[in-house]
Write a structure and sequence with these properties.
The complex is a heterodimer of chains A (231) and B (236).
Chain A (H helix, E strand, L loop, with lengths): L4 H38 L4 H16 L2 H17 L2 H5 L3 H5 L1 H27 L2 H9 L4 H32 L10 H12 L3 H28 L7
Helix pairs in contact in A: 1-2, 1-6, 1-8, 1-9, 2-6, 3-6, 6-8, 7-8, 8-10, 9-10
Chain B lengths: L2 H12 L1 H35 L2 H16 L2 H22 L9 H26 L3 H9 L4 H31 L11 H12 L2 H30 L7
Helix pairs in contact in B: 1-2, 2-3, 2-5, 2-7, 2-8, 3-5, 4-5, 5-7, 6-7, 7-9, 8-9
Classes of the chains: A mainly alpha (231), B mainly alpha (236).
């Protein structure tokens, strides 16, 4: 074991860490927004909306994330190449870079997995509280904003922490489409220094620390949420 | 040429057999890894429940690492480490290095990763068994192995099934990661097909559909299993 290369290649790992965190942030926020929609759509009384949401979650949860990333990056990406007109627009910089394809793929998968979780949480809110809100004459949207959603999220806090760690782990797949995230940087160092284990071990440590950090952040967050204590 | 003609020509008639073979390999890898994961999970769960401090610390470390580090990274790490380790042992015994079978290392790597998840599921399920049942078995003088075989495993199965079936679905999808280290399972075959025909979207969508069919079919099988294992459970 020899970690001398860390000094030389340090400058690769800092932006790589930034890329991983940005992937997490962008796909997490976008995905969570979509997941709220999916969660409510799953409980919709309109049969078509409920069916569409169910097929969406089943399809996304039934196929590997790696395949979804390939469909978007290689599949859709290869379609854009066929239109030379696109190359001249400002969009091209985004369409060429694997980063945004991965963000989209991750956001879609978060929407499906977390959508199911949120559906469970929405169902877990005691019916009486919603009926009370309705009895007070709250408009539906206000009821969702003030009571249904906050209560559901409160119930779901531990599962959301778990889902965020899963998302962090999924961001590592970005390295398969040439995005320089932490794992991508490790693979680069591996080819440069011909060392197999050390870069991967350092990367594993980085992910381990990040995962523990995420759990700590959620623990603090859960602490700050008011919970019913006593009667 | 329409999309559908292209599909039937290149995906079905040219690459159909190869893709189906790839799907079979995916199923074999997942099946092997699932069995290995269950075995590791059972051992780790029993270790954690035994309460011997140093062993529990090791088990907890294994579970934490496998749950916090990306599967792709673990697969890369274990794939190289595993083959190096075997070659080092061979070298020590005086043999030359051998090419490690990609299938075996795929099963090993996925099994080790899934073992961590399986152990938590199994531990929870074992804790759900009334302690009196195990005490009763002990009072009748059953040996440890007999208790595990006759009481522990059959009684915990209904509690563990939901988690284990989720694990199987995860495993089917994680097996696609093996394609990164280059063993010809379903996704790797699709990569080759897409690369040689330049029809990326078509092939990746088709292979996605194949994974979907596999997961939907496994869902049906799992439901059959569940009703069988739950047959003695009190109906709610």
């Amino acid at each position: 074991m020899d970690f001398e290369w860390l000094g030389t290649y340090q400058s690769y790992f800092i932006p790589a860490l930034q890329t991983t965190l940005l992937l997490l942030l962008y796909s997490g926020t976008l995905g969570f927004g979509l997941a709220l929609l999916v969660g409510f759509a799953r409980l919709s009384k309109q049969p078509f909306i409920a069916w569409a949401a169910l097929s969406f979650t089943n399809t996304i949860r039934g196929t590997p994330l790696l395949v979804q990333i390939y469909v978007l990056y290689y599949g859709l990406g290869s379609l854009f190449v066929e239109f030379p007109a696109v190359r001249d627009t400002f969009l091209w910089d985004y369409l060429r870079d694997g980063f945004w394809y991965v963000v989209l793929a991750l956001a879609i998968s978060v929407a499906a997995y977390v959508g199911e979780v949120i559906k469970g949480g929405l169902r877990g809110v005691p019916k009486g509280e919603l009926e009370a809100a309705r009895a007070l004459g709250m408009p539906r949207l206000l009821m969702v904003r003030r009571i249904w959603l906050p209560r559901a999220l409160q119930i779901l806090m531990p599962s959301l922490a778990g889902e965020t760690v899963l998302l962090l782990k999924s961001t590592a797949l970005a390295s398969t489409v040439a995005v320089m995230d932490v794992l991508g940087a490790a693979n680069f160092v591996r080819t440069q220094t011909l060392r197999t284990y050390e870069p991967l071990l350092v990367t594993a440590l980085v992910y381990l620390v990040l995962a523990l950090l995420i759990e700590e952040v959620f623990r603090r967050l859960a602490h700050r949420l008011p919970t019913r204590s006593g009667f | 040429m329409t999309w559908f003609e292209q599909f039937t020509r290149s995906v079905v008639s040219e690459w159909g057999v190869v893709l189906l073979q790839g799907a079979l390999v995916t199923l074999q890898i997942s099946g092997g890894a699932f069995a290995l994961g269950l075995l590791i999970g059972l051992i780790v769960a029993m270790t954690k429940l035994s309460g011997k401090t140093p062993l529990v610390i090791i088990a907890n470390g294994y579970i934490t690492v496998c749950r916090a580090v990306p599967e792709l990274l673990l697969i890369l790490l274990l794939y190289y480490a595993g083959s190096d380790l075997i070659n080092a042992v061979l070298d020590w015994m005086g043999y030359g290095p051998i090419e490690i079978n990609g299938f075996a290392s795929g099963v090993l790597v996925l099994g080790i990763v899934q073992g961590a998840y399986a152990s938590e599921i199994i531990r929870g399920a074992i804790l759900a068994i009334p302690l009196g049942h195990i005490e009763a078995a002990r009072a009748f003088g059953c040996s440890r192995g007999l208790i595990v075989r006759r009481i522990l495993i059959p009684e915990m199965m209904p509690f563990a099934l939901a988690g284990l079936s989720n694990l199987w679905m995860t495993l089917l999808k994680d097996s696609a990661l093996i394609s990164v280290v280059g063993y010809n399972e379903l996704l790797f075959t699709a990569k080759q097909a897409a690369g040689s025909t330049k029809m990326y979207l078509l092939f990746y969508l088709s292979v996605g559909a194949m994974y979907l069919v596999i997961t939907l079919l496994s869902n049906l099988v799992v439901e059959r299993f569940e009703s069988r294992f739950r047959r003695w459970m009190p109906a709610h």
